[in-house]
Every structure is written in C-alpha cells, then in structure tokens.
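Example record

The entry below shows one chain as it appears in the dataset: sequence first, then structure tokens.
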Amino acid sequence: MRQQEREYYQKRTGSYIDGNTVRRVQEDHRRHSEQIHEEYLRQQKEEREYRLRKRNARAAAKRNQAQALQMSPGYVLFLAVSMVLLMGVFGYYVQLQSELNGYMKSVTGLEADLLNLKNDNDAIQKKINISVDLEVIREKAMQDLGMIYPEEKQIQYFEVETNDYMNQYEDIPER
C-alpha cells in the first residue's frame, strides 16, 4: 500500500517537465491523478475481496475439518464391537498359548519320569543278572531236585528248514 502511494507521489511530481505549459500539465495531472486514484480504489476493493474469499475458504476448511473429525454413532458402535471382538480373540489366543505351555511342561515332566523309570529298570535288571549264579542253580537242581544230564540216546536231533518263515500273531515288544 505504501508502495502505491510512493508511485502516486512520483508520478504527480514527475509530470512537471514541459516548462510554460504548466496549466495543461496540471489538467493532465488531475486527470492522471484521478485515474491513479480510481486504480488505487479498484486495487483496494480487489484486495478486500481477496481477503474475504480467503477468510471464507479458511472458515469452510475449518468446518470441513470439524465435520471430518466427528464420528457418527453407528461408526462408533461398529468400532466398539470390533474392539470387543478383537480383545476376545486375543484373550482366547493367550489362553490357548498358556494351555499349550502347561501341556508342554507336563509332557516334559512325564518324559523325565519315564527316563528315570527306564534307568531304574536297567539298574534292577543288572542287579538281577549279577545276582544269578548259574553254577549255584545247577548244583541246586542236581542235588535237591534230582536233575541229571541227558544221555546220548536221549538227545534227538532235527533239521531246520532253510526258509525262515514265521507267523506273527502279536507285535514284538520293544525294550
């Protein structure tokens, strides 16, 4: 705005160049200054209109933003139900995960018990094998029970077929 006033002043003072024809310059100057004044008023009016449009645009943008931030009750209800369902699913997942961890600990404990029982069985079997003295059993059988070794005529020999076919009626137990 000051720049426009400065331009106006320079044009008004700069028009006195022609010497004797000052009156005519002044008349031209009046016409010219009226045009400048009209131009100045027109520019002010345009500037006011521009500021008014800008203010209205800002107000509309604020209204739109406020409207966008508002949520309808249906949307809020949908979000609430979704969150409740999601929390239920997560809760169920955590419960399943904790049950799985409990089962894994239980299986680990049972495996440790099984290993201990196998070790105990092996130790007892070793004790049994060590405690059995075949010589003592033979003497006891011959003296107390009357066992005698077979004679040559009592021994019968038979031939075994070469095929190793066998009917299996039960599963073979594992050790």
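Notes for this example: Helices lie at 2-14, 22-69, 73-131, 134-143. The radius of gyration is 58 Å.
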